[in-house]
Amino acid sequence: MARDRFHQIVKTALIKDGWTVTHDPLQLKVGGVDMEIDLGAERLLAAEREGTRIAVEVKSFLASASAISEFHTALGAVH
Predict the structure, then answer these.
(1) In angstroms, rounded to a whole number, what is the distance separating the alpha carbons of residues 6 and 13?
(2) CATH of domain 7-75
């Protein structure tokens, strides 16, 4: 998997904000489809509560003539 230009910056920001990066990358299987998300992280909220988990997909829109078009592509929007 090719890493986005800002992958390490986002990972460092998550760690500085108190998250523990648990997966780099996070591999999931949903509805029979294999997916790979850039980062998986968790943060313990309180000793008596379960941790909160997030999955983070890092995208940059630097090389395209249309950042809006790239944004829609990243979201999977139908044109």
Answers:
(1) 11
(2) 3.40.1350.10
Domains of the chain, by residue range, sit at 7-75
Render pLDDT for 18-71 as a digit per residue (tens, 0 to 9): 888 988 888 888 888 888 888 888 876 555 556 778 888 776 666 666 666 666
DSSP string of 42-66? EE---TTSPPEEEEE------S-S-
Torsion of CA 57, 35, 54, 49, to 10 degrees: -170
Token code pair at residue 43:
């943060």
Q: Which pTM was predicted? A: 0.63
